[in-house]
Amino acid sequence: MRSLLRTGWGTVTSEGLEATFSTKNMSEYYVAFCQVYGVFLLSVYFEFFPDLLRVTPNAQSHVRKMRVALAQLNRWPEMLTYEEMNQNIPKGMNFIYNIFRQVLAEKFEEGFILNGEKLS
């Protein structure tokens, strides 16, 4: 039900609610969702199964770069977005968030889950 309702966007007027229901209303969100969490899952897959995958140093380098780029993103798609709640996206702490993202990017370069350590 929620997925269907989130395709409807509109405005409240003096005459009532004017809404348009279309998959285009959330298409950018779903593209971002697939890109972010697809890279995340791929990274975790490489992190947990490097021996099984027989990862080459070149492939591992690419995964590491994707992991760092992902950790530096300003915003990962939320399960419930600010826009859906008619709220503004918080902007007051951008400087702190930028520093935090940089620290996370360096920490997550070797892995999101295992932090570069092998499973025992």
Automatic annotation (TrEMBL):
Membrane-traversing stretches: 29-48
Keywords, comma-separated and alphabetical: Membrane, Transmembrane, Transmembrane helix
Name under which the protein is recorded: Uncharacterized protein
